[in-house]
Amino acid sequence: QVQMVESGGGLVQAGGSLRLSCTASGLTFDDYKMGWFRQAPGKEREGLSCISGSGTTTYYADSVEGRFTISRDNVKNTLYLQMNSLKPEDTAMYYCAADAYTYCSGSWWRRDRYNYWGQGTGVTVSA
């Protein structure tokens, strides 16, 4: 079955950086578009970024554009999110997600566009 495991979360000071990883198994990784989402306490899950199966197309939410970079290694079946210039409002649980449609469509930010989810990794940014 499909499994996705995130790692790399932790506590960081404002202005710092973290790199999240998501390793997937049980699927043909490069056939799937991948996304990163986050959910802060009391808030809805927010779509942050999407990358196509080949890795050639990426999309970002306005809230992270220019600070976060999504990438993937289709040999290692791993998705990454490089997060720079972190702010306290970036504090949340971060989730990776996979969808069997290989391209990031116009609604890539919708959680119902993804079939599989990881369990999440926590990020806390202190002021």
Write the layout of secondary structure elements.
Layout: E1 3-7, E2 10-13, E3 18-25, E4 33-39, E5 46-51, E6 58-60, E7 68-73, E8 78-83, E9 92-99, E10 116-117, E11 121-126
Characterization of this structure:
- There is one protein chain.
- The chain has 127 residues and is mainly beta.
- Helix content is 0%, strand content 48%.
- The chain is built from no helices and 11 strands.
- Strands 2, 4, 5, 6, 9, 10 and 11 form a 7-stranded mixed sheet that branches. A 4-stranded antiparallel sheet has the order 1-3-8-7, with no helix packed on it.
- The chain is globular and about 40 Å long.
- The relative contact order is 0.32.
- The mean pLDDT is 97.
For the termini, the CA-CA separation is 40 Å
Strand residues, percent: over 45%
Please provide the count of β strands.
Answer: 11
Number of helical regions: 0
Report the average pLDDT across residues. Answer: 97
Cα radius of gyration in angstroms: 13 Å
* Shape label: globular
Q: Into which percent range does the helicity of residues fall?
A: under 10%
Spans of at least 5 consecutive residues whose pLDDT stays below 50 are none
Structural class comes to mainly beta
**Main sheet makeup:** 7 strands, mixed
What order do the SSEs take from the amino end to the carboxyl end, as H and E?
A: EEEEEEEEEEE
